[in-house]
Design goal:
Length: 141
């Protein structure tokens, strides 16, 4: 698994800490900055800066769009990357269209979550699946 942050700004350090907590490499795509020096010193997972984000069925694009499948239906054995966009504009529609789109259902007044909230839920769901697959004796790649 690798996480791609697309066009993100102020939340980079918090997302980096989150990826580090789950031991997931992180890549920054067209972000306005890199993780801060203090965050970089503490990170134990690799991070890179990219010019483009991946697309394909194995790439999960997190979006608040109602047309996306609920994250509870994601087949994690078919996902190798998670894309998260910035909080103002999210992921570009052409990127979402080129990936498997998933949403985190929310029921309150807000129409979306912060990128750290969305990413933490997605990584937890993936991690929960990984733990159950390993417990069941499934070979993971």
């Amino acid at each position: 698994m690798i996480v791609y942050l697309v066009e993100c700004g102020a939340n980079i350090d918090r997302c980096a800490r989150l990826c580090d907590a789950f031991r997931v490499p992180i890549s920054y795509v067209s972000c306005s900055s890199n993780p801060g020096a203090a965050t970089q010193r503490r990170m134990t997972v690799p991070w890179t800066a990219e010019d483009e984000c991946p697309t394909g069925a194995e790439v999960l694009a997190l979006t608040p769009h109602a047309s996306a499948m609920p994250i509870s239906l994601v087949a994690w054995d078919r996902v190798d990357s998670i894309l998260v966009g910035n909080e103002k504009s999210g992921l570009p529609q052409d990127v979402i269209d080129g990936c498997t789109a998933a949403r985190i259902p929310i029921y309150g007044e807000w129409h979306s979550l912060t990128i750290e909230q969305s990413l933490s839920i997605a990584l937890w769901d993936w991690h929960r699946w990984m733990a159950s697959a390993e417990h069941a004796g499934v070979t993971l790649t």
